[in-house]
Amino acid sequence: MAHDSKQYREELVAVRGVSFGYTASPVLTDISLTVDRGEYVGIVGPNGSGKSTLLRLLLGLHEPDSGSVDLLGQPARAFAEREKVGYVAQDVTENTKRMPITVAEVVLMGRFPHAGFGRVTSDDRERAHEALETVGIHHLADRKITQLSGGQRQRAYIARALAGEAELLVLDEPTVGVDAESVDAFFDLLGDLNDDGMTVLLVEHDIGAVIEHTSRVVCLNRELYFDGDPVTFAESDALDRAFGTNVRRDDEVVVS
């Protein structure tokens, strides 16, 4: 069931008229959308549609060719308070295979921006422990991050974001390589966090899960095809049109 948490009108993300391409071929064309505090937004679209590129623009990792991207009221490229945005990358499972540190140490990293003079206090450790409890893996605190399953590692990185007092959680295909049972529990966790006020922005290949769990769906394939509630999205032809653009001529595509 979707979580209706849109209780506020404070924009955490504002994308206005953004176009971007890595070469002469555009990846995103004239994209505009905002994400308000408390929302749970799922982004869907075919492979190569620009979903992950959009996240990188939001995080200030790329400069748009045209248009603007603001993050928590600041230009994304100049945004300095990185701890306020928890980012869980698609390849986090692969990237952690060579990290010989414990789960507790990974989560404690989220406290570093708050640690005075670089010193981690007992309060910092307590917040890290609370974050581990929130995501349900406090019993794995002393285990090496390399020993965790894919789903457990995702939870560890969400805990790191919570420990850092993130206001926005951004996830790029977080369920890739995670077993079905863990996926269900993972979406339950995201729903609970959203119910508690966390703003969630999720790129996800499982369209059914996005329809079931999020409160808003954004569908894109280079251009924006849909931005609205999951029920309306499920009843629309936006998905068919977005996935069909790879085989149709551009001038035959009607963009909503």
Automatic annotation (TrEMBL):
Provide the ABC transporter domain boundaries: 13-246
The record, for InterPro entries, names: AAA+_ATPase (IPR003593), ABC_transporter-like_ATP-bd (IPR003439), Metal_Ion_Import_ABC (IPR050153), P-loop_NTPase (IPR027417)
The reaction(s) catalysed by this protein are: an R-cob(III)alamin(out) + ATP + H2O = an R-cob(III)alamin(in) + ADP + phosphate + H(+)
Protein name as it appears in the record: Cobalamin import ATP-binding protein BtuD
> Which UniProt keywords are listed?
ATP-binding, Nucleotide-binding, Transport
Its biological purpose: Required for corrinoid utilization. Probably part of the ABC transporter complex BtuCDF involved in cobalamin (vitamin B12) import. Probably responsible for energy coupling to the transport system.
Which GO molecular-function terms appear in the entry? ABC-type vitamin B12 transporter activity; ATP binding; ATP hydrolysis activity
According to its UniProt record, this protein's enzyme class is: translocase
Identify the PANTHER family for this entry. IRON TRANSPORT SYSTEM ATP-BINDING PROTEIN HI_0361-RELATED, METAL TRANSPORT SYSTEM ATP-BINDING PROTEIN TM_0124-RELATED
